[in-house]
Structure formats: C-alpha cells, structure tokens
Amino acid sequence: MHKTKKFLLLTIVLFVFSTLIQGAIKQRVIPIIPKPVKVEVTKGTFKFTGQTKIWMSEQSEELQKLGGLIAERINRSTGWKIISAVGTTRKIPRSLVLIQFKKDFLPNEAYSLEIKPRKITIAAGSGAGIFYAIQSLFQLMPVDASKNNFSVPCATIEDSPRFKWRGVHLDVCRHMFPVEFIKKYIDILAMYKMNTFHWHLTEDQGWRIEIKKYPKLTEIGAWRKDSLSENNKYGGFYTQDQIREVVAYANERYINIVPEIEMPGHSLAALASYPELSCSGGPFEVGSSWGVVEDVYCAGNDKAFEFLQNVLTEVMDLFPSQYIHIGGDEVPKDRWKNCPKCQARIKAEGLKDESQLQSYFIQRIEKFLNSKGKKIIGWDEILEGGLAPNAAVMSWRGIDGGIAAAKAKHNVVMSPSTHCYFDHYQGLSGEPLAIGGYTPIEKVYSYEPVPDVLNEEEAKYIIGAQANVWTEYIATTDHVEYMLLPRMLALSEVVWSPKILRNYSDFSKRIEKHYDILLSKKINFRIPPPIPESGEYLLTGHKPIELNRPIKYSKIYYTLDGSEPNEKSKSYTRPIKIFKSTFLKAKTILKNGKASGTASLIISVVDTSVNGLNYKYYEGDWNVLPNFDSLTAVKSGRIKKLSLSEIKAREDYFGIMLDGFLKIENPGDYTFYLTSDDGSKLLINNNELINNDGLHGSKEVNAKINLNTGKCPIKIFFFEKIGDQNLKLEYESPGITRRLIPASMFFFNN
Ligand SMILES: [Zn+2]
Q1: Strand segments (E) across 274-389
Q2: Which end of the chain has fewer CB atoms surrounding its CB within 10 Å, N or C?
Q3: Tens digits of per-residue pLDDT, 662-673?
Q4: Dist. CA 388 → ligand 1 center (Å)
C-alpha cells in the first residue's frame, strides 16, 4: 500500500516535470522556412567541434559533394578542417553527421533529419532530398556561428514537398543581369527549396541568348536604344558557354532551368535582326519602351518556323529541362489579319480565324518539340483557339486559364498576377517605383494554388506555382533582390508545406532569423517599415500609438511634423502619445545603416459615435455602375473612414454605396480627386460632381465646387469587376494642400 502510493507520487512528479520540460521545448521556435511537414523538438543540442566527422553511407560522387557542403560551411565559420568521407571505420566518432541514401524514400525530394546530442542523421532517396535536409540544417545553425557557439537544437524532422513545380522567374530582357547575379539568384532559390528557375530570355526589348546559327540575334537583337546609357545603347546577352555554366551551377543545387523563347509575340528583337520573319518585312528597331508590340512572327511563312526550330534545337542542346517555355502571351492579331501569307495559311489549314492561327502556330512548335522528347509550357493565352495536345499552361491572368486547362487534363503552373507577380508593390508607402498592383507578403502567403472548383482528380493537374519577376522598372540586382525578398519565403511555404500547416503568425516568428541570414549573406531584401499601413489611422481617446519592430536589432525613427525621419530624428522607445490630428512618418534602420522606406500615416482624432459614413454592399457582375437603389444590398452598416478594407468585400464582382455628410469649416472652392479601379462617382449636395465610371485600372478624375460652411450631403458609388481594386478620395481647399479627406470630416448624420 505504502509503496504503491510513493510510486504514484513519483509518477506524478515525473509527469509534471516532463510536462514542464515539454512546455519549454515547445516554446523553442524551429525557424525552418518552408515549414517542414513534421517537426518534433527533442531535448538538448548537437554541438559541432573540430572533431565532428561527416560520414557518407556509401561511395558516391554526389554524396561526397553534398557532404562537402556541410564541411565547407563549418570550416568557413570556424577555421576548423573538418572533412567528409565514407564512414567505414568500426569506431563510431563521438560527434557525427551521417548522410545516407535510402532507396525506399518516397517521394523523390523527401528527406529526414534527425538531430540528437551526439549524432545528426540525414536520410533521403535522392540527392535533392539530402540537399534539402542540408538547407534545413543550415537554417538551424547560428547566423554568427563560430568555434564557441556552433550548435543546433535537437529535433526530428520529416519532410517532403507538396508540389513538384516550385518556381521563380526572372525577366533578363527588360533589364539585363550578369551571370554572377544569376548564380546568386539560383542560390537564393535553393536556400528555400525552390526547384525551378524560369529564365525569360527573349523579348521585344532584347534577345539575350547566343544562337550560333543566327548571329544577328545578339549582334542586333541584344541591344536597344537608350538615351540614359553609355553610347546610347543598352543590352547584352549570355554566350552559350555562360549558359552551360549556369545550367551546371543550377543542377548542383537541384534547380531545373526552364528557358523561355517567346513566340509568336514579344519577338520584336528577333524581327529587328531578321525582319523577313515578320508579316510586313520591316524594318524594325529593338523595342525601347514597354507594352505590347503589334509586330509578331508571320504564321504564314514557313521560314519563321524553320528559324524557330533551329533556335529551339540549340536551346534544347543547352538546357536539359523537360519543359521549354514558348511564351504565347499577348499576341495582337492585326498583322496576321492584313497578311496574305497568314490568310493563305488560315485557308489552307481550314482555320476559323486568327485565334485558331495562333493555336496552329503553337501546335506546330509543340509537335516539333515533342518529336525531340520535350514538352511545351506557355502562358494561358495558348488556350485561345484550342490548346496544343500535350501543352502545360502557366496561368497568369487570374486562375481561370489554369482551371480550364486542369479540367481538360493538362498540367498547370499557377502564377496569377494577383498573388505571384513580384513586380508589384509590397508596401503601401515608401516603396521604390513598381509597375503597379499591391502584393504584400501576407497576400502571397495566403495564396492557395489549387482552386476550390477543381475536384480531386482535376486538382492533380496543378503541378505547382511560381513567382514572376518582370523587370521593366527593376534596373539593378539590388532592386531585383528587394522585389523577390522576403516575399519568396512566403511562396516557398505555399508550394512546399502542407496546406494545413500554413499559419501566418507562426511564419512571422520564423522569418525573423531569416532577416539575419539574408543580411549575413549580403542579400538585399525589403525591410518592413514600422507602420504596417498607409493612409489614415483613427485615434479615439488618447491611446498611445504603437509601432512595429519587425527586426529585432533595428531602430525606429519618427517625426510628427511631416519631415523625413533619419537617425537624428526621435528614436522610438515607447508608444507615442498624440493629442491632435497630425502626420506620422517613420522608418526602420538596421545597425549597418540599411533602412526601410519611409511609411507615413495621417493620424485623425475622431469621435466614432458621430464620425464616419454609412455603407451598403452589393454583389454582381457589372461593366458600369448599376442603379444601386434598385438592388438589394447583401449587407449594410457604418464605416469609420473611407477605405475599402473597412468593408469586408469579396475579391471581385461587388459594388458599394457610401453616404453621409461632409463637414465644411471654411467656405470656398473645394477640389475633389476621386481615384478608383474600377468605376466610381461622387455626389455632393445630391448632385453628381465626378463621374469616374466604367471598367478601368486606377484612374483619377477631379472637379471643383464652391461650398459653404456646414454639413453637406455626400455620396460615393463604387464597383469592382476583376483584378486590382482601389478607391480614394482626396481634396484641396483654401489653405489645405491636396490630401486624403480625414475621417474627422465625415459624419453619419446631419
Ligand atoms: Zn503573316
């Protein structure tokens, strides 16, 4: 009796003790990105020493190289001379990293990583799996690893990717980037287990790949007029030797390079070199402005096909990739309509129109590539006029093309511009010039590549997703890195980690270490400013304003007078007390002086019981503003400030009617600026003042009106069909420079 009781007590003590330990272990963040399928944190750490051995389970050149990666990494940080070798001796070292091929490992890129106090075991069925285990291990190492602190936490990790196409693209045509940078780019992709590099090599504005049979492609096609460059020309190209070097470099990092040779459109650089391949015969100049060019390859001219086949033959010789990207996007049909050869082709082939001629073009190229054992992938426009029998589709104009292709049993890579275009803005203020759009890291993280409408069978055709980095407005390598990072880390988790494990707040904790890793590797990235939003912040009462510190070792500087903050401005140490409406500007500055953009915010002191607007929210598919009064609202309510984000609208196909009163304190001429994407209207005193209706991108219309002191009725109508959305109302009045209408001027009631 007595004994049993004691035993029970001991069990309870042990239980409590082990729960405490487990609690403590669970608190430890394993900062691996993308998040592994399964992580079990265990007790203790593995400490690397000068005596640590790296053993391969078998004699293999590939394993030897992979083991070498670990040894090299340790030796670089510590000055030790650790070697990697095949482990044959019977005496097992006290500190061992064991790397094993295990043939039964499925799928191909899966791995396991077991870290115990005296032994790390890496196992996988392929070199790729081992490589990914090593990337995970590297992420666990201290960023400032040295002889004294070189340890990693104990854990057991089992991991494999969700998708097999984990892509990142780079446009080297709008701006050219050197081979050394392409290698660095590949390194960045590899760190985060991305396995596909889509190299966009030909464009209207430049042909970037040496083709031996057609030297003019690079003598002429690689250079465009540019008044800002030396000798008034801009360009460059990669020689075939350089391309082989890059392909081999990527191969060692388990990255497949998919080359893109654009056709039939985006081919002005080729046509400038060989104008006889066009419908009109030219002459042409290599493009020096952005946009869609009307001149394309002549689909009625067999010489154009012969040319492309010869080009592709050299391309296939350089790139081992199973897929060759043939572009196919944004092909205007005007030249084909007016070309006798193209019209003759339509007749001879029994085609219905120029859309089918585009389809004929792609199918003819596909047949050629298929005959060489290759597959084609193209932008979703290749669906027009009928999809080539074996083609894969890269869905960029939203997801509809991808859905249609998957339903037709074609492989699909999702890359919708809404979530995957990394030439879009990442922040709301303080960002360098971008092409447009707003794709912050949270939005990338929220992306789900498999659309709900697909059934299980159809979903299998979604083979992955990809980020695209178009470089019209990105001229330097630093800027490319800025646009890529840290967004690519979010995408890596979208394409690698199980859907069920995706959790943004957990990701935000893990990413902190990666800022340090990127800094240590001299890779540029966007430093988040300390204010996450732009526009207007409503202050009710006198609650102090808290700023974010996204990076631990950073400092935050701010101003309240509209001036640009710098290291001489006020340093943020505690929440800021604000008593009247004002401007807040702030930036994050790292130890090395590297700074975020300046974020600015209007602080409006309001009384939320009276300040704001009434809204009604509608859903529907319109091309112009409907008569909202004749429709039934899905919901209605009050918003505290004029902002779309205040109303939880769906992404597309909705409309909003806002009404209330605008308080005018000083009489005089008021100019209003109404910006929207898509259509909008502004009514003041129940009269239409601004009509900004119709389907369009972000567009501003302004108008002036004389207003008296008092509260005047205001109404705003807005609708959104698809794509980006935006609604903004600014004003200018006697003594007030142009700015957003602050929430303190809006009232629900008269
Ligand atoms: Zn033609």
Answers
A1: 323-327, 375-379
A2: N
A3: 999 899 999 999
A4: 21
